[in-house]
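Suppose you are handed a protein chain with no further information: no name, no annotation, nothing but its sequence. What can you learn? This example shows the usual starting point.
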Amino acid sequence: MNSEEEVQFVDPTRFESNSSIPQTPIGHSQQSASSSLNQPKSKKRKVSNEEEVALVGNLTETVNNLRAMCQASSKGIDKLTDCFQFLVDDQALKKIYEAIVEIPDLVLHESLMVKAGLIIARDSTSPTYFFSLPQRLRKYHVLDVLGLGHS
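A reasonable first move is to predict its three-dimensional structure. Written in structure tokens, the prediction is:
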């Protein structure tokens, strides 16, 4: 091939059966000022089947590595979430227990106060209900959750 020749690539997706492929005579260049402005400057290079297979293999390996990293990150995030949930639950239990201890005229053994706090904390709506009650009525709620009735 002559160094002055320009190779033209035809996009196969735009090929029409009744159109002709432009031919460049051997030894002639199409590098005039007007034609060089109209033609794209980047040229496609032909990729062999082996190169395509290698590229797909590399891409697949990269995607699999990313998937493994995301799964590992997800497990770490789950552990961190569990840790924070434990801290939140611990604070809620302390707050409930302290509120039970402060109830006037509630005469219970400490183990029953702890049990009442656990029962109240386990039900998702019970702590909200417990803290919405006026101080004088919390005693009755604690006795109810313990099954001791009103005295």
